[in-house]
Here is the input.
Amino acid sequence: MIRRASIVCLEVLCGVLVLIGLLVAGSAWRLSQGPVSIQFLLPYAEDLLQRQDTRFHAELDDLILTWAGWERALDVRALGVRLLEKNAARPVARVGEVSLTLSARALVDGKIAPTSLEIIRPRIRLVRDKSGGLQFDLGAPEKDTGAAATNSDDEALVLLINELSGPAQPDSGLRYLNRVSVIGAALLIEDRQMNVKWGARHADITFERAPIGLRTTFDLDVDLRPSRPEIHGEGIYNLKAGLIDIGISFARLNPNVIGERFEALAELKALTTDLGGTASLKIDIDGDIKHAEFEIKGTTGSLTVPDTKIPPYAFRALSFSGSVNRNPDQVKIGGLEIDFGDFKANLAGVVTRVGKIAAINATVGIPSMRANDLKKYWPPGTGGGARAWVLTNMHGGTYNDTVANLTARIPLEGKNAGALTVDSINGRMNVVDVTIDYLNPLPPITGAKATATFSDTRFDFAAQSGAIGDLLLEDGAVNISGIGGDNEKLVVSAFIRGSVLSALNLINHPRLNLLSRVGLTAKDAAGTHATKLLIEFPLINTLKADEVRVDATSNIVGLVLSDVLKEKGVTDGTVALTIGNSGMSAKGTAKYADTPVRFEWNQDFSGRDDVSMRIKGDA
Here is the structure.
């Protein structure tokens, strides 16, 4: 009897297994032919977002089951999903299609619960109001997209974030949910504080549980024509610390396009380039930045100086990196480099908030620049008369190892907010092989090698070498003082060695006309000299001859002049000579008519002395 009962039970079990196998095979065949509606399961699915501590519940129009082969899990798609407040008719969120991955544990309990869900092609609207609060709207009908988001929308978002930001709640219909993805969303972001609206044509966003809280990834195709920037990133919300770490990468972000599109960011129009790079931020749950770092590169573009007629500065590439800190509020630019083609410039600096002022300390470096290119990059209206003189009278050669230090401030509030005030500028550079027209049309200093220092009121060149014709410049200086004031002045001093003939030709140039005043000529002159030359004049547009001060002090050896007095010359002279605007003084020894003499010659050019010339000597 027992044996027969066992055989019957075994036969029944085999029959059940065969029936199950047939059902599974039939179901697999049916699913492989296309989606299957499982609308009869809707009552079990509508507890999807229900939990006792919220006022929301979900309604669905249909459930569809699809299968893509043995290697893929079943895919359940919910159509016509609406999230409603209890006892309210109008949905607070509406999504056309949601894809779910089902929890096997929930199925055992007789429930349909997702471990992950994908919200497909919704419309999402995020608003920051004037008080700084955030409002969220998901899947509003097209006619309602201009309406303000409701508190219910925000609470639904808070529900989702809270649910995924910590351990699953035992009484929640979302306790099995680990991941939510938004696929192909149309995203609109409105910042009412800055009066800015922007969006993404295509946005993929994912929220998932993380060991310390919530992890979010996003990929945005931003609707800013014609550059069409892309933004990709990841955010980690630390629930215990209340902090969010965000990492972002982006490409084709054009500041000029942003400035044209958004009035509040109009100053960005000055920079035209496609930017790409990375940034990392640490912010608190109120949106305050605690720390940030960034590395950015730009393609070929241009930089325009606002409110000027200066042509845009074209560049080949730029890159910069930096950080943002709090306590104190500070932005550091660790390295900004711009390749202008003709030369490269780099900048490092710090902007620190001090009360209602942003204090700026910056250092600019230019490794090498052709002197002739300076005109393109020295903005008009800066540097006073020094700019005009340097650009007109210094050319050829290069400026090397230029370093400039800047301190400035910008008011953050009040009627002058945003206006830059420069407190000081100072720096240095090396001048190599530059030609200096110190007093046109006198012969210039050529091949000058100098070290230059400058500030907001002075420009000083200390020359180590150079030449004026065949005269050698051993030491010298060009000093421009009073920049930006009413008494801008230029002083040229030089220590020169060479032939007497060249020196006399220089001081007898029509621009100075000093030698002819004493009735001498440079014809057949010979000898060598060491001369200290000083030229001083104001930097004004209409310079007169009597406004140029000239002083020269020379020690002459082996002097030969053909016609000094009574058509007789001197030879073998050793003379100490001083000559300038007011007169001349010469003292020394020489052979006059083959007779050794000691002499002293003084001559007045001012007209204040009753006797214009005094000569005395003894043999």
In short: The radius of gyration is 43 Å. The helical segments are 2-32, 42-45, 104-108, 151-164, 255-261, 374-377, 384-393, 500-507.
